[in-house]
Design brief:
Elements lengths: L1 E12 L2 E12 L3 E5 L6 H8 L7 E6 L2 E2 L8 E4 L11 H11 L4 H14 L15 H13 L5 E5 L7 H16 L3 E5 L3 H7 L2 E6 L2 E7 H7 L4 E8 L1 H10 L3 E4 L6 E5 L5 H8 L3 E9 L3 H11 L4
Parallel strand pairs: 3-8, 3-9, 6-7, 7-8
Antiparallel strand pairs: 1-2, 1-4, 4-5, 9-10, 11-13, 11-14, 12-13
Length: 305
């Protein structure tokens, strides 16, 4: 089941078409990567999903029904442009915004205290927002976004401004929310985070979706038959045997007994049987393309408007 579906969404500002027949299906309970270069249309789609703006054409569905404005109460949205009241105290601001989202004073205080402890900012409860570092403000903004326990969480570049330790803390909390049943849409340029966290992705470029699907399946589909090999034995014999099977070898000059093999026409099991016929194998790993490489390859081949 999809928590959010967008069918053939069009959006145009003046003469500029920002979204063109965009279709996106976000599976329930997943972390969904929304990818694309700057100006591709990601933020416009997010604004449409939050009912901040309306599409010119197309339909949105939420939990199987045509989306209503009331559904936005079940969405938490962390925009890339952060918005906090800088003169307000940190705890006071969280409680105020939680109240606007419908939480009682008791629930708001309980949940805010739990999240402050989880993010290790309890000592900043009575500090003004302007006294917080950028990373601390980012934590506060995230907490405010999730306090009302949304079914769908939309995060636009959530790791910007974080050091590696706090980025890992954020990733841990996002996964924990996913495991509890929250669906997460992650809009990011950080391809390593996509590989590490996302179950599915859509790649938007020039207002259209040019690639979508399960991350593991996409990486498998783009593999080129390359393998990393560790071995013991006669390297010259190995090269001769592989050459006879139209397989190329790139030797690791710094590490004897290591090589990269390109064999696009050979299945992994067949290639391994060829190799063990002449040397002893210590390691054998298929090389899958990174999401960064797949992103660049697809964006480069899309005609520029």
């Amino acid at each position: 089941m999809n928590i959010l579906s967008a069918h053939q969404i069009d959006k145009q500002y003046g003469t500029v078409k920002v979204l063109d027949q965009l279709t996106v299906d976000v599976p329930l309970g997943s972390i969904y990567g929304l990818l694309g270069p700057n100006g591709a249309g990601k933020t416009t789609f997010i604004r449409i999903a939050n009912r901040i703006t309306a599409p010119d054409r197309g339909e949105l569905f939420f939990m199987g029904h045509k989306m209503r404005y009331s559904d936005t109460a079940k969405i938490g949205y962390l925009p890339e442009e952060r918005g906090l009241y800088r003169k307000m105290k940190t705890g006071e601001q969280a409680l105020y915004l939680a109240g606007l989202k419908g939480l009682s004073k008791t629930d708001a205080r309980k949940r805010t205290a739990e999240w402050f402890e989880r993010f290790e900012i309890t000592g900043w409860w009575n500090k003004k927002v302007e006294e917080l570092s950028k990373g601390m403000q980012q934590k506060l903004q995230f907490i405010i976004t999730v306090l009302h326990d949304p079914s769908l969480l939309i995060l636009d570049e959530p790791f910007s401004g974080f050091d590696p330790v706090n980025a890992e803390l954020m990733k841990k909390e996002i996964r924990r929310l996913r495991d509890k049943g929250t669906t997460v849409i992650l809009s990011t340029h950080n391809m390593s985070s996509v590989e590490e966290m996302c179950d599915h992705i859509s790649l938007i470029d020039n207002s259209r979706c040019i690639l979508h699907g399960n991350v593991s399946q996409i990486r498998q589909a783009y593999k080129s038959g390359e393998y990393e090999l560790g071995f013991e034995g006669d390297a010259k014999l190995l090269e001769e045997v592989l050459d006879a099977y139209q397989c190329s070898v790139d030797w690791d000059a710094e590490h004897p007994g290591k090589a990269r093999i390109c064999a696009p026409e050979k299945a992994a099991n067949k290639l391994l049987s060829i190799i063990i016929s002449c040397v002893s194998v210590t390691s054998f790993n298929e090389i899958l393309p990174s999401m960064h490489d797949i992103f660049i390859r697809n964006v480069k081949k899309t005609p520029r408007l």
